[in-house]
Structure formats: structure tokens, C-alpha cells
Fold:
Amino acid sequence: MRLGANCVTWSLLPNFVFSGTIIRTGTESVFECDLVCTKIDERRQQSGEASFGAFTYHQVGSRAVVAAVRLAVNDMAMSKTILVTGASDGIGLATARALADRGHLVLLHGRNAEKIERVAEAMSLAGGRVEKYVADLSRQKDVESLADAVCARHSSLDVLINNAGVFKTGGPTVTPDGRDIRFVVNTVSPYLLTKRLLPIMEGVQDARVVNVSSIAAAPVDLDALSGKVRIQDDYQAYAQSKLAMNMWTYHMATQEQKGVVLVAVNPGSLLATKMVKEGFGINGNDVGIGADILVRAALSDEFAPHAQRSGRFFDNDAGCFARGHPHNDDSARCAAVMREIESQLAL
Structure:
């Protein structure tokens, strides 16, 4: 779907393309369209599925009137610039596709240059507007270079989705400077990237940082976060790193950052990602569950500034904002985690 001032071109491959005028009635959007196609799929003559939602339509001669059923009007109000880290597969890829399908400019980040190139090419061929960025989030200089590259190309950023994460490393669990990779990738690097990008987000209306967290949570050992203590168990390291992410989200939102909404989101437990396959040996549930909530967190009114959700934790397993682990909003503990992160980054 691509929008002009008040016109839309809506492709439903392989059989039809609608183009015409948006007519809005209350909370529903109706598209009065010219129907451009070679053959109508009779099975979809009354209803169908587009990447952004369900729809129904009826045909009047060569015209078609299409009523979108599950389309949030605000999603179409303007094109946003959105950075998604870890966009080469899993939830990140599904989220990036969904956002591009809505007409937003999606900045795709990946660690592997070949993979992110293939993803960017496929999304571009499908009509998406994308840019690609390569960075290894276990390396501080790469994170800084990623932020610099985004700032060099864009004077503003609407949404940052810190999705990239690691559970099992498949190799060394510590960085060359002795820190646990799970903490570096899942906690410290998203914090650093956020801090470096805030200058181009703070003046943007309804700017948001969406931190992809987990229902997994364990009390943070500050010595493990600093690298003084090794965590042998993968799950324990992952759970601590995700709670630490929740904690810096809360602290930054409540103590430092008033102009940008920050939320931590559990996208859903045991979704069909590479991480779940490697960590638990199961196929998992539909990644679309996770992508749907991340799109909502990026675009919908329920996460907007007026909703006063900044700093909160959204548990998609429960389908609502929740306190989660009691340390999520423990101000003293959150401040201690922040001090350790900033000491590592020399901020």
C-alpha cells in the first residue's frame, strides 16, 4: 500500500491492484477504487487478506468499493522513519515487512551483510522503501558507527525498535574485553544505540523507542553485567540481560527522557524464531504474534504519549501492560543498573 495526499495504491498480489481515493467515515476507512486486474479470484470476491489487515469489497462495474476492517487510520496518516535492529530474520524481519507494507521507510539492521542485502532486495522488489545497515552489536564501535550512519542520512527518526538479541551464542560467551555477550547485545548495545539516536528523535512528535524484551527475567547480578563474574547457564544470562533492559527502559523514561516514549515489550513466549529453535529445540508459535504487537507499539495510540505508558512493560502473553518482575520499576535497582552500563560506556 502506498499513499499520496488522499489517494492510495493497494496491491494484493497476484491478482489485483486497487487505486483510488480514501473516504473516511468515523473510525472506518473506505477506499473507492478503480479495479485494475486481469482476472478476479472468485474465492476472494467478497473478502480477502492484505498484509496490513482484513478487508471486504463489492464490485460495481469496473469500480470497486473496498472497506478496510482492521486498518488503523492513524497508521496511514503519515510515513514514518523506523529503525529495526535484527531485521534479517524472525520477529525483526516480520515486523520490518509489516511496517514497510504500511508505507513507512524502514531502516533494516543486520549483523550479516549478505543476509540483510537479500532481505532489503526482496522488500524493495515488493514495493517497500528500505535502507540497509550492517553492524555487530557485540562491538561498541559498530554500534556507534550504526548510529552515526543513521544520523548522517536522517535528520529525524520516528521509531527505534531494539529487536536484535542473543540467547545461545554458538561460540564464545564473552567479548574480547571480558564482558558477557548476552549482556552486551541484549542490554548495553540497545542502550548505547538509543542514547546516540535520541538527538534526532527528541524533536519528533510521537517518537518512540520499543525495546524487545521477554517474559524471562532474573535478578541482575551487577558483577555479571560488568564481566567480573561468569554466568554459565544460557537461560540465566538471557533472563538477567532482558530484565536489565526493562530496568534501563524504566529509568530512562522516568528520570531522564520526557520527550520520547520508551516501552519494553515481551512479544510473546516461544515464538518460531531461530533463537527459540536453538535454545529450546522447538519450532515455536507464529512470529506474526510478535510482529503484530511490535507494530502496535510503534504506531498505535495505546502506546502514544497521551496514554502515559512510557517506561512500562507490555506483556503480550497477557495482552496488556503489566508490572512483570518486581525489579522492573524498582527505582534504586534501576539506577544501579544504569550506573554500571554507563561506566562501561564511559558516558
In short: The CA atoms of residues 88 and 116 lie 5 Å apart.
